[in-house]
Design goal:
About 5% of the residues are buried. It contains two helices and no strands. It is mainly alpha-helical. Helix 1 packs antiparallel against helix 2. It has one domain (about 5-80). It is rod-shaped and about 60 Å long. Keywords: Membrane, Transmembrane, Transmembrane helix.
């Protein structure tokens, strides 16, 4: 596999990470809203249940952390590929 092909694959993996990361980030946003908003009535009825809100954090935070870890590894690999001279 050439350097250019691997860089293109890394870009595709970045796109997939963005897609994978979108739903957990929305869950975290909704959870933070439910925890800290002073509204009497939340946006969604299920946000009234503290167990559901905590469960959203328990499910989404590890996924976001994995996506961040993977993105750092991919960025490091891409930077290394871009800095190596052509052979």
């Amino acid at each position: 596999m050439t350097k250019e092909q691997r860089i293109k694959e890394i870009e595709k993996e970045f796109m997939m990470l963005g897609i994978i990361d979108a739903i957990p980030m929305v869950m975290i946003g909704l959870g933070l809203y439910a925890k800290f908003a002073n509204d009497s009535e939340p946006v969604f009825a299920f946000l009234k249940d503290e167990a559901i809100v905590n469960g959203m954090f328990i499910v989404s935070v590890p996924v976001v952390l994995w996506c961040m870890f993977r993105a750092v590894k991919l960025a490091s690999e891409r930077r290394q590929l871009e800095n190596t001279p052509h052979k």
